[in-house]
Structures are given as structure tokens and as C-alpha cells.
Design brief:
Layout lengths: L5 E10 H15 L20 H15 L13 H11 L7 E10 L5
Antiparallel strand pairs: 1-2
Length: 111
């Protein structure tokens, strides 16, 4: 494991609708099928996205959820990272909530 990668375990309440939208946007930007998107894989390093793809993803998710992405303390690189960030920034979690305990890697992607 690269010393620059920080492993951590998070427990977040994630709305299934948010997760489905994020997965769909990952798939669109990466030109992949939804089934090919692993929620724990890094957008660039493991799923093959580029920095331009990442910027386009942020623009689409910003428009979809009406939130700003400011990664001064947190970074988002996986579907789970984005879902956690979006859930924290939006009005709350709806009835279809789901608890996800995930081990993810943050690779310091800041915009």
C-alpha cells in the first residue's frame, strides 16, 4: 500500500436514490455499464477515468444535487465517497436509507 493512501472505515447512512444517481453518473462519464461500476473503486486509478472526466462528473453531480464540492477536508474518489459527501450536504436521508460500512481509500484528489 502506498504510504500516501489513507485507509479508513466509515459508517454512513446512504440513500439508495443518491447511490443510484452517482453510479449512473460514474458509468456515463466512464462510458461503462452500470454493472461495471464497483462502489469501492477509485474513479481514476481503478476505473480508468481522467481528470477531465472527474471535473465533468463534479459538474453533473453539482447540477443534480444542487451542492458545491469543496474538498478542503474530505476528498471523493469512489461512489461511496460521493454518496457520503452528498448525503451530508443534502437535506437529509429519505425513507429508503441504507447503512453502509465501507473501507475505502482516499488518494488526495482535490480540486
Amino acid at each position: 500500500v502506498n504510504a500516501r493512501n489513507l485507509s479508513y472505515v466509515t459508517t454512513e447512512i446512504i440513500d439508495d436514490e443518491i447511490k443510484n444517481i452517482v453510479i449512473e453518473q460514474f458509468a456515463l462519464e466512464l462510458d461503462k455499464k452500470v454493472e461495471e461500476i464497483d462502489c469501492t473503486k477509485h474513479f481514476i486509478f481503478e476505473l480508468g477515468g481522467t481528470s477531465l472526466d472527474y471535473c465533468k462528473l463534479l459538474i453533473k453531480l453539482k447540477a443534480e444535487f444542487d451542492i458545491d464540492f469543496n474538498f478542503e477536508q474530505d476528498s471523493c474518489s469512489t461512489v461511496e465517497d460521493f454518496c457520503s459527501f452528498i448525503a451530508k450536504k443534502t437535506k437529509g436521508v429519505t425513507q429508503n436509507e441504507k447503512i453502509i460500512i465501507a473501507s475505502t481509500q482516499s488518494c488526495g484528489m482535490f480540486l
